[in-house]
Structures are given as C-alpha cells and as structure tokens.
Design a protein that fits this description.
The protein has two domains: about 35 residues, no CATH class; about 40 residues, no CATH class. The chain contains three helices and four strands, in the order αββαβαβ. It has a two-stranded antiparallel ribbon with strand order 1-2. A two-stranded parallel sheet has the order 3-4. A hairpin with a 2-residue loop joins strand 1 and strand 2. It starts with 5 loop residues before the first helix and ends with a strand.
Length: about 90
C-alpha cells in the first residue's frame, strides 16, 4: 500500500509515532503502550456487548491481504461476523 500512497507517506502532518489520550489530551506514547490500550479497549467492548455488539469496517483502497487480515481479526479475536466494507458500493 505504501507504494500507492507516496504523497501521504511524505506529508508533513503525517503521524510518526503513536498517540494516546489522557484526560482528553493526546500525548506521544510507545508502541507497546498504544497497542496495550487498544487491546484493553477491544476487550472491554466485547465484554460489554459480546461479539454481536462490535464490528469491523475495511476499505476498498486496502490490499486484499489487508482486508483478509481485518476480517480474520474480526472473526477470531473479536468474535464477530459484523464486517462491512465500501467495496460493495
């Protein structure tokens, strides 16, 4: 995907590190902290609503491999079949 998005990769405003929100304010974080927070958020959403209460949306501009990985993540990790994409439009 990077080869098709060279302008975005070179943009000055491109994020170069993860950001996390503390008390409504974004701050730089390590990849480990950001991924741990994302995992906690996914776990909380599934615990609160079950697999049927969460979903995954993928993009037609992503590669087939990326979309495949997204649907596998949704089905195996989140336990949901709620998967949609703008591919169908």
């Amino acid at each position: 995907m990077a080869r098709t998005r060279q302008a975005a990769n070179a943009a000055r405003e491109r994020l170069t590190q993860p950001l996390v929100r503390d008390d409504g304010v974004l701050r730089p974080a390590s990849w480990d902290e950001a991924l741990d927070r994302a995992a906690v958020g996914f776990q909380a959403a599934v615990a609160r609503s079950g697999g049927s209460g969460v979903g995954m949306f993928s993009c037609s501009k992503a590669t087939n491999e990326m979309n495949y990985a997204a649907q596998r993540f949704a089905r195996t990790v989140l336990g949901t079949n709620n998967i949609d994409s703008c591919n169908r439009t």
